[in-house]
Amino acid sequence: MVFSKSMTFDHEEFGPAVVPTLPPVARGTDDSVFLDNLRAGDAAAFEVLIDRYSSGVYALLYRITENPEEASDLTQDTFLRALRSIKGFRGDSELKTWLYRIAINESRNRFRWWKRRRRDVTISIDATIGDSQTTLLDTLADRSISPEESALNREREYALKTALQELPEAYREAIVLCDVEGLTYDEIAVALQIGIGTVKSRISRGRQELRRRLKDF
Predict the structure, then answer these.
(1) Which H helix or E strand runs over 17?
(2) What is the CATH classification number for the domain harbouring 20?
(3) Number of structural domains, the chain?
(4) Domain span at residue 199?
(5) One digit per residue, pLDDT tens: the chain, 217 residues?
(6) Are 41 and 97 part of one and the same domain?
(7) Which of 104, 121, 138 is the last residue of a domain?
């Protein structure tokens, strides 16, 4: 794994562990004591947070950047930001969704840095959606594809990658979270801090734009 809890933090980042530290097996991500430990600056609790969610955060960021080094750096930035912001976490959403929101914001900041320097951003479409075997390419493909057309899959995939790079940031984020990460509309709304209607609209318009760009395939 590229990112792990071996990342280091300055000791002053953590406050005194005023809440008794529970053994890892007794912690639950929805448990109020676990959240209290995090808010109190308990380093052990934060290591548990990293253990449980760093793989998912890294996967999300890799699928947005398609660059392992950038994804690793952004993952570390995400957890550093989470460390500094955890006291403000009210538990209105799942910790995973909250971390995804931070990761998206970090990636947006990095993307703007890239854009100013005319650096290309690509997205992996080979990854499966959620726990299924369906890929993003599959969601855009014609279900009645013939054997002859299947020979064009490689060329179509390249064209889709190019089209994804050219999508507006808002559409690209929504499509990755929905069609690659497998998040629900509710979870996407929380992660992007937008309404459900806007989520559906962005996904629909993003897919329509991709289909328009791929109409020759």
Answers:
(1) none
(2) 1.10.1740.10
(3) 2
(4) 128-217
(5) 444 444 544 444 444 333 333 344 334 444 788 888 888 888 888 999 999 999 999 988 887 877 888 889 999 999 999 988 898 888 778 889 999 999 999 988 876 655 444 444 444 555 555 556 666 556 555 445 555 655 567 777 777 777 877 888 899 889 989 987 889 999 999 999 999 999 999 999 999 998 888 887 6
(6) yes
(7) 121
